[in-house]
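anyone seen this seq b4? input:
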Amino acid sequence: MCRYLKDVLGDTLIPEKTENSNVEHPPPSRTQPLPGPNSLRRRSSQLPPPARSPPRHAPLREPGCCKRTMNIEDRKFSDSNEEEQETLLPFLEEEEKEDQAGQCSDMKECWREHQLDEELVDGGKMGNKVTSEGAGDKSESSIDELTTCQLRIKMLEKQLDYVDIEIQKEKEADNVAAMFRLQAAHRRLCTELEDEKDFELKIALTLKENMLEMWRIETEQGKYEVLHKQLQKDEEELESQYQEKAEARIRKEKIAALQAEENQLSRKKKEEEVQKEHEERHKKMLEEAKKNHEKAVCFLRKSMARIHEENAKEEVKTQEHMERRIQAVLSLKNSITSNREKLKALQAWNKAMAFEAKKEELKMREAILAEGGNVAKEIFLHKRLLQHEREKQAFREQQKSRKIEIVSRILQEKASICKQKNRQSCTKASKSGGKRKDSLLWRRKTWHYIEKTCEHPAGAISQLRCSPAEEQADGEKTAFVGDDVLCESVEDEKEKDKILAEPEFPGLWSQECDWHKVSNKDMDTKQLALSVMKKEISEKKMEEFQTTVSHKQIVSGHEPKGRTFYSKPSYIHFKDFDVGKIYKKKIVLTNASYSVNFCRLVGISEWLKDFISIQFEPPGKMSPGMSCEVGVTFKPAIDENLEGEVMFMAQTGSFSVPLKCTAKTCILCFSAIGVSIDVPVWVPNPNIDLKICMYDQLYQDCVVIQSRAKAPLRLKFEVCKELSKHMELLPKTGYIQAQSSFTVQLKFLPRHSLPQDAGSYFNEETSVLEVPVTILIADKTKQVNFTVHAIVTTYELEINPAEIDFGYCTIYEAVQTNVTLTNKSILPQEFGFVGLPEFVEIQPNDGFGVLLPLESLTLDIIFKANKAKEYSFELTCKSESNRRFKLSCRAVGVHPPLELSHSLVQFAATALNDVSTATLYVMNSHVSVNHFTHAVPRIGNGEVAPVGPTSFEFHVPEDCPVTVTPSVGTVLPGKKSLIQVSFRPTLSDQLIREEAARRLCRAAATGAEIQKKKKDEKRDGKKSNIPITRQQSSGQFVKDGSSKYLSSSSSSEQPESKEIKPDSEAYMAARAFLMRNFRGRFEKYIIPCFIASGDIDEKRGSENLTCSPYNTLYLELHCPAVAPSVVVTSDHGKNTVSFGDVAVGHTIIKQVTIQNISPEKLELGFSVLNPSGPFLLVRAVRILEPGENKALIISFSPNENKWFFEALDIRTAQKNLTLSITGRGVMPSIVCSVEEVLDMGYVLAREKTTFTFKIQNTSTLTLQYSIQLDSLSPTRSKDQQRLPSFLTSSLQRTEIVGTQNYSGLSVFSIFPTQGEIVAGKSQDFVVTFSPDHESLYYSDRLKVVLFGKKIAHVIQLKGAAREHPMFVEGGIPLDVPIESLAVTLPVSSQEALKEEPQEPVKSILLVLEHIEGENSLLPAKTELRVGAIQTAQFASKKNVEFSFDNLSLLQKKGFTVEFVKGTIDRGQVKCISVSWVPPADLDTTDPVIETALLTLKGDVKESYRILCMAKVVSACAPSN
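predicted toks r here
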């Protein structure tokens, strides 16, 4: 009840906050009624209303409103609360009873609403019935609210009656305060009663609507009952249909089951019949198999015997071939040593010659310097002269070789014609005669060509010079031919060794050697001609092969070395052919590479096409080890030796098979004379060849001894003492029967001491052993000797190094090292590493292979630790002789605390300046130190790493186009961190600088040559033949910054690449050239990731984290870079679009030109820029033809003062081009020397005055400004249509532009009006005030506008003009600030002096306020200012004089004037103080007003009425 009294009678109404009321309501308006007692009663009740039903008065007012402001009446009667409580006590007691009844009704209402909510929850089950019941509940609640509202209205009417009675009582008692309070309560109750009546009407309308809704629902429910009945009937019919269908389906299933049983029985019968037939066929097949097996066994035995025979023959051939190879290796070794000595001597000679050349050059420099000449120029000319001499000498040698070639061809033709005459028939001779005529004709042409060549002018030598690239190519070609000639010479020597056998006795052999030498001299020309011809043809073939694309094969990370196809035989040789016959041979080509390959025929040597034909069908793809056959047919037409090659092309490159055709040669016949000795015993095979033997192996052979004696003989076999430990004959003694044979077993067991024991019988270089064995015959002085030959070799395989230390290896990586396996034997040996542990891998071929004699093979030993521990193991290499060779290995396994989700990242082919991105994770799976349940991080057998946050750092090498983000971080246990790896290929800066330097050097040399030619032409008096455009281009290049390189061009020295700046044109041109000619590259990078225990944030600022190098993880990156499809051609090819500094709110547009440098048509796509960002792609390009240029348009509109950056991806089908767009939004700011108001002061009419102020640009960009005056505004005419400001109150006056000139010209002018202010600079502005008539209210407004949009500064311009050089200021002007539209002509000064004194021209009010109570002695003060205008117009006039009249009246009333009269100089202002002290008999209720007259005399006389008004005010009273 006390709260209600406070709400009704107090100053404000504060709602009580409850837990359910969280919404703050706005304060009610003045017309909003206060809440009634019932609403207050509801808020004071303990049971709040349900949350779903709003308060009843919600549509009309807000019962929970915020504070209500007090009016003055409520404030005055706030002290009479106690009296009101006493008067309203009976009323409050009745209200408490009604509150209790209201609480009960509210409880019933809440319970009814709760039941309604429960019914609404089950609304889906009740259907239409529930809907109607809900409508009924709504109507019931509306009825209850209506009755409650009516009761409330009655209660309010009772309260009004009661208040009226109380008002009458208080009026009779003349209690004004209580009466006003009751009247306020009466007004509130009336307002609330009206609100309740309105609420009653609304409830009545709501009740009617609810009733209508209920009736409508009942009608709809009646419609749906018919449909509900129909639905029940349909459901019953549907159920019966379902039952019928189920019965029909059951009948069909029974019929199908019977049919299935019948089919099963028939299938069983068929299976039994098939089984019987199968058994019968099986029996027949067994019988036939037995017969076939017997036949196969018979054939197999025959074929095995044949195979054994063939293997034996093949083995014999292999041994012979191996012997030949050994001899060839030895001879090659000797030739290599001799060549090395020659090469060393040649190198020493070259060094000596170079040293001599340097000495000569130094001497020349000193001589030139002594003469005062240009050293660089003279040395350059000297080098050019030497080069010219060398070229001249080379040309002469070339001419000689041509002569020799032509002569050799002629001689060759002569020899061939002679042979054809001698060996061919008459018919062939007739044909050859025609050829001879042709050859004679050809020979004549050749001699004619020789004559022309010999007469070649010397000056043509310089024209025949080749470019350095051609000289290099020629050098390569000659080297290629030289290798062929070397191979041919070796083969020729072998053939000669095979054909010719040296006789035992000298004789005709020496003569034949002399004859052979003579024939070689005759054939030198032929061989020279043949080699030159082969050189020309090989050059053609090389040109053809250069167009063929070959691919390298890399298997298991290794590239095969040597030839990928081997031929058997290694070369094709047609021996002793006859002209006219046909010869055929076959060769077998075998794929010796590590992967699938193919082979196709390219052709044969040009000079063999008339005689050789090839039969070859390409077999397609060939697996490793597969072979194919090639047929070669030779049809000789001339009796001459031919040499050439059959050329093939494989996937890995070209290869060839040598071909040789040798004609029949003369066989030398000779006779020998010797003396025979009669020995009773002889050895049919006096040379026992044990072939190749290995140490510690037993070799046996049988030696057969024949006897021609007629009686048995006793034989004794002796081996030299040096080899008695290694060789023996069993039996050592024996008897041989007459004219029979005796067999002795030879045993040879070479031991490792054989080289020391054998002495001279063993050659350590060739490993050849020759052992003489003696057969002693009893009772005979003669002895028989035979020799045992053997090549002794070792079986050792050498592994270097013998020990491997892999060091520390993590379980996430593999460590690779190389070992060299060398075969010390001259026999091929098979080897294999057996019993490898699971953590070791050997490549190639998993550690198995064959080593040729004395061959070395590099093997890759790959170790991958599977857990953290110390490893110590041995690898066993086993040879085919069952020898074992050990390789000791050790390593330390490391389990790092972190791991990478991917240790290998293979980027896609990325274009230059594009970005490819890959993601991976750094994971910390170390959550427990229990090593019994799982593997724990540790180094070897060391301590377990602690569980906790672990930090990592990726260390990217310098000059690596890879970025790792983040490169440093911390991973918590059981968590992982996302890592982003970006690959952005670019051209290296050094490469661009070198290319730029080369281009500058070439351009400088060209310019020097052009200038030299100009000088020569001027000297000779001839005109220049160089085109004008070329001269201009070279001259322009020199002007563009390359002049500093021209000085060095004379010395042919390249300019320093470090001197080239990245923003120079040469640098830009070199980068564009390299980018367009980029052919792609592939690079591998290994990025280490260091690991340390601990959190980086915790250690920051104190100490660095310590990391172990053994815990380092490695990330391998494969980075292929390709040439871009689209490049930027604008702005020197830069991929960065920089807008620079742009003012906030402004827009700048730039064009970026792109070009398609690919040979294909491109469809372009673009990434989406930030729609809320400042960058916008205004115009895009969708299609680019090959070589086409198009422009993109990009705009930049910053809205903040900060840097902006975005990337625009130009996407093609395979490659992307990224444009980096940057710009900075800058908020323009200025500082003005004048702040708000610029007062130009007083000036004579039709004169002017100026004032200069300064504006400084304090921002970082150049500002575009414009100065605007409101008097020149286009809206000025509209503003003049408004009411004059003096007709409105002073608060509503907003005019800024004051009095203006009659002439229409602006009274204020400024210069300059527009322009730019550079960042950090300032600009001076001159304001000119030039009025054309008198007025005290000249004014205007000046605006500084930046970029035509933003108003940066505003200055109020003021000024006053007088017709006469004097003025008075101060006080309150009593005239109108707007002048009349009528133009009045000014009165001249002479007329004004002649005329009589006029009325005062102006009235000035001076207000003085004396404060009472503070200090009565202090007077109230104000002042007037009287001034004289400085002007040249009245230079001869006197100064201005002033004087006051009627001062006696002022003094009577307490006013005092400081200066009564005085003189003012030109340009000076005099301040006159006026003070007031109230007289003693002053009535303070009325102000004191008195008038004085102020007279000014200058060129004219002017009077001013001074109204002095004074009053006394209290210290606490506010002044008006």
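The chain has a mean pLDDT of 76. Residues 578 and 636 are 7 Å apart (CA to CA). kinda curious what u guys think
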